Amino acid sequence: MLYMPGPFMSAHLDAWFKPEARREKDKALFVLEQLHILIHKVDANRQTSYVLYESFRRSLRQALEGSGTARSFGIRPSQPNSKRVDIAFLDDYARKQWDTLLFYMVGNTVGLKGGDMGSDISDDTIGLLKLGNLVQSSYGRTTITQAGFNFVLQATSAQVWSLLIVYLKHAESHLGLSETEILSFLFMLGFLELGEDYSTAALTRTQLTTLDILCDLGIAYRPSKSSTSFYPTRLAVSLVSDSASLPASGHSNPTGGYIIVETNHRVYAYTTSLLQIAVLSLFTRLTTRFPNLVSGKITRQSVQKAIKLGISSQQIISYLTAHAHPQMRKTQPFLPPTVIDQIRLWEFDRERVEVTQGYLMKEFNTESEYRDTAAYAESLGVLVWRNDMKKVFFVDRIEQMTTYLERRNRGH
Amino acid sequence: MVKAVPGALVKCDASIKAMLINIDNENRNDFIIEELDEEHLLVKKDKVAELKSRLHEMMKQVLREPDTDESDN
C-alpha cells in the first residue's frame, strides 16, 4: 500500500484472509484506523477500500529510503570523542539511577533506610512521581500509593514507559513544553545504538530540557550538564523493543531468580539488594536477614496487608514466579500449588465481590438488534455479562460498540 | 433507541448481594443503579470504593473473624 497510487479494495483484502480469521482482521483494521494510519473509504458504487494517511505514508517512505531531513535516527558527533564510556558503565549508571528511584518509592514506605540509596534522587524526579500519583506525602513523610505498587511490580520497560507517559501528560500544561517534540525525541532515543555517543546539536530547547530529566532517570547519560554529547542507556534502547532490557541488580545468576518458596509458606530470598528486600517485605513477613539471604513467611496477615494497599494476589504470584530461584524452576509450576491457592484464597477472603467498570447496554428495539450487537461485542472480546431474558448486556469498552451501532443504524 | 449506561458491574453471590442492597437502602439508594439478576448489580462508578468499604465493615461485624492467626511454624 505504501507505493500504491490508488486505494486498496477491501474485497481484495478479504481474499487474503481465511474466513475463521475474520475477527482478528477486524480487530487489526480497527486499531489501524484508530491510530490514524488507515482510512476507510466508501466510494460512489458502495465499494469499500482502504488508503494510508498521506503524512504517515510520506514519513514511512522517508524512513525506509533514508531521504528527507527528519533526523529520525540521531546525529553522530562530527569528531570522535576521546573520553568514550563503555556499555558496562552505561548499564551500571542506568541501573543505579532506576534502582534509586524504585527504592525511594518502596523503602520510605516500609521504613528501610539504605545508606546511599534513595537519598540522591533529584527534586524533578520526586515531582514527577507525585504528579503521576505514584507516591504521596503527608506530614513530611513520603508513602507509596496503590498505583505506585502496581508500578513497582511491573517489568522495567513498562515502568519506564509509565513514568514517561506521566511526564508527557504534564509537560505541556505544567512546563509549557511541546508534547510532540518530546515524543519524537523519545522515539528517536529508542532507535539509537547502545554504547555510541550522539550530538546534542540537533536537539531543540524542549528536547534539551527533556534530556536533563532523562539523565536523572538513568534513561540517558551525559558526562556533564554542559556536555555536547549524550549516550542512550539500555533503558532508552528498550523503549521500543523488549529484547535488550536491563538485567536486574543484586544477584549473580543470569536468569535473575532469587526467591525460594516452600510448601509451608516459608520464603528464602538470596539477595543483597535493598530494593528487592523492600519489595518482598510488602507481602511477606521477613524475620531474619543474613549477609546474602533474607528469610520470612507469607502469612494471611502479610498478604491481606498487601491487598489492602492495592496489590492483587495475581501480582504477588507473578512477582514470585518471575523471580523464582533456578532451583524452583525445575518443577512446573515454579511455585508450590498450595501456596498459590492459599494466596488467592486469602485475597478472596477480603474481596467477596468482583467489579468491572464499563457500560450497560439496554433498551434494544428488536430481538435481532440485541442478538447482533451482543454477538459483535462477544467477537470483540468486550462482552462481560449478558442476560437474554432482559435483553441487556454489559461491555467493558464502548468505543467500538458505538461505531458499530451507528453503522448499523445508517444501514437501515 | 439503544442506551448505554456507564457504571460498574458488580458480581457477587446472593448473600453478598442482599447485604449490598441493604447498604443501598440505608443510604438513600445512593449506590445501586439497577439490580440485574441474582448475582449482578449495576453500581454508580464513583461509589464502588465506598460501597466496598461499607461491605467490609458489615462483614467484620457479622463474622467477627479472628484477626490474630499468626503462628510461626
UniProtKB/TrEMBL annotation, chain A:
It is found in: Nucleus. The keyword Transcription applies. Keywords: DNA damage, DNA repair, Nucleus, Transcription, Transcription regulation. One of its GO terms (cellular component) is transcription factor TFIIH core complex. The keyword Magnesium does not apply. This is RNA polymerase II transcription factor B subunit 2. Residues 341-405 form the Transcription factor Tfb2 C-terminal domain. Gene3D superfamilies: 3.30.70.2610. InterPro entries: Tfb2_C (IPR040662), TFIIH_p52/Tfb2 (IPR004598). Pfam families: Tfb2, Tfb2_C. Its main location: nucleus. GO terms for biological process: nucleotide-excision repair. The lineage of its organism: Eukaryota, Fungi, Dikarya, Ascomycota, Pezizomycotina. Component of the general transcription and DNA repair factor IIH (TFIIH) core complex, which is involved in general and transcription-coupled nucleotide excision repair (NER) of damaged DNA and, when complexed to TFIIK, in RNA transcription by RNA polymerase II. In NER, TFIIH acts by opening DNA around the lesion to allow the excision of the damaged oligonucleotide and its replacement by a new DNA fragment. In transcription, TFIIH has an essential role in transcription initiation. Belongs to the TFB2 family. One of its GO terms (molecular function) is ATPase activator activity. PANTHER family: GENERAL TRANSCRIPTION FACTOR IIH SUBUNIT 4, TFIIH, POLYPEPTIDE 4.
Automatic annotation (TrEMBL), chain B:
Signal peptide: none annotated. GO terms for cellular component: transcription factor TFIIH core complex; transcription factor TFIIH holo complex. It is found in: Nucleus. SUPFAM superfamilies: TFB5-like. InterPro entries: TFB5-like_sf, TFIIH_TTDA/Tfb5. Keywords: DNA damage, DNA repair, Nucleus, Transcription, Transcription regulation. One of its GO terms (biological process) is nucleotide-excision repair, preincision complex assembly. In NER, TFIIH acts by opening DNA around the lesion to allow the excision of the damaged oligonucleotide and its replacement by a new DNA fragment. In transcription, TFIIH has an essential role in transcription initiation. When the pre-initiation complex (PIC) has been established, TFIIH is required for promoter opening and promoter escape. Component of the 7-subunit TFIIH core complex. PANTHER family: GENERAL TRANSCRIPTION FACTOR IIH SUBUNIT 5. Belongs to the TFB5 family. This is General transcription and DNA repair factor IIH subunit TFB5.
